[in-house]
């Protein structure tokens, strides 16, 4: 749609620019005729041929200016990312997570407070509760109550304004983000699939054996389906899993 609008815009611009160029040539010729007794014919020739170039110069100028304006958006975006506040350290050697953490999966929120940005109201206002390992819990609340915010808090996508979260007695604010985020997992409402092979989607870091991947597929009741695909684990997945519907 936007691409199509470019054509009428360019044509409209050309009409205006040609008109300006035409007017300049017209007045150059007019003045040459009016002052034919005083001005050198060589100068008249020079001024008219230069005025003929004006249209081209104006078109190039306008195109370049609009290109700069379009492309500067990329620079603006990079600047925005550069100025973004850095997250907590990815690895924190002074507080390594115990190698088998989390063993039980006991989650405790202690007087936990969270706000989305400095200056905004608290979204979670001192929540305290405890979930035992292996326990299944449903969180119920009206829209905007802060259910999704609890999940963001667990992964430290947003840092707390107060209080703490303990998983198996380890305060998660003390850990490096990689240690935290690689040890817990989330199943989001909308599945995320990248373009690439099925194998890359299941194991982006390429660390697992085929056997493990097939077992995971079996647990998800997808073994027969994937087994039926010609390329098996190397089946190409379209972006967003378009070819799986
Ligand atoms: N990115 C954000 N910036 C600022 N405030 C936000 C942001 N996301 C959510 N909020 C605010 O945080 C509060 C809790 O939002 P949250 O998404 O956790 O609610 P929810 O319980 O998951 O709601 P829903 O049932 O609609 O999913 C809401 O009042 C919302 O306005
Ligand atoms: Mg939500």
Terminal-residue CA separation? 27 Å
User: From the alpha-carbon coordinates, what is the Rg to the nearest angstrom?
Assistant: 33 Å
Bound chemical compounds: adenosine-5'-triphosphate, magnesium ion
**Cα shape:** elongated
- The beta-strand count equals 6
Hey, roughly how much beta strand do the residues contain? 5-15%
What does this structure look like?
It is a multi-pass membrane protein. This is ABC transporter domain-containing protein. It comes from Timema douglasi. It is found in: Endomembrane system. One of its GO terms (molecular function) is ATP binding. With 245 residues, this protein is of the alpha+beta class. It folds into three domains: 2-83, no CATH class; 107-183, P-loop containing nucleotide triphosphate hydrolases (Rossmann fold), CATH 3.40.50.300; 196-244, no CATH class. The protein is 45% helix and 11% strand. The chain contains seven helices and six strands; from the N terminus they run H-H-E-E-H-E-E-H-E-H-H-H-E. Strands 2-1-3-4 form a four-stranded antiparallel beta sheet, covered by helices on one side. Strands 5-6 form a two-stranded antiparallel sheet. Strand 3 (162-167) and strand 4 form a beta hairpin. The mean pLDDT is 90.
């Amino acid at each position: 749609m936007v691409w199509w609008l470019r054509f009428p815009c360019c044509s409209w611009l050309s009409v205006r620019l040609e008109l300006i160029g035409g007017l300049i040539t017209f007045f150059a010729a007019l003045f040459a005729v009016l002052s034919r007794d005083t001005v050198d014919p060589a100068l008249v020739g020079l001024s008219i041929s230069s005025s003929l170039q004006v249209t081209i110069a104006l078109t190039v100028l306008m195109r370049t200016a609009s290109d700069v304006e379009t492309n500067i958006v990329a620079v603006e975006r990079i600047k925005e990312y550069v100025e973004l506040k850095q997250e907590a350290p990815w690895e924190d050697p002074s507080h390594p997570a115990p190698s088998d953490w989390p063993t039980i999966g006991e989650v405790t929120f202690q007087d936990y407070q969270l706000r989305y940005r400095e200056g905004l109201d608290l979204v979670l206002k001192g929540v305290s509760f405890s979930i035992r390992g292996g326990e299944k819990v449903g969180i119920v609340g009206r829209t905007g109550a802060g259910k999704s915010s609890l999940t963001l808090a667990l992964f430290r996508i947003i840092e707390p304004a107060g209080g703490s979260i303990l998983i198996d007695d380890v305060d998660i604010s003390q850990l490096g983000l990689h240690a935290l985020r690689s040890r817990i997992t989330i199943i989001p409402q909308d599945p995320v699939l990248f373009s690439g092979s099925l194998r890359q989607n299941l194991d982006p870091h390429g660390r697992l054996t085929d056997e493990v991947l097939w077992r995971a597929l079996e647990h998800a009741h997808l073994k027969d389906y994937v087994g039926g695909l010609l390329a098996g684990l190397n089946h190409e997945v379209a972006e967003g899993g378009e070819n799986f519907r």
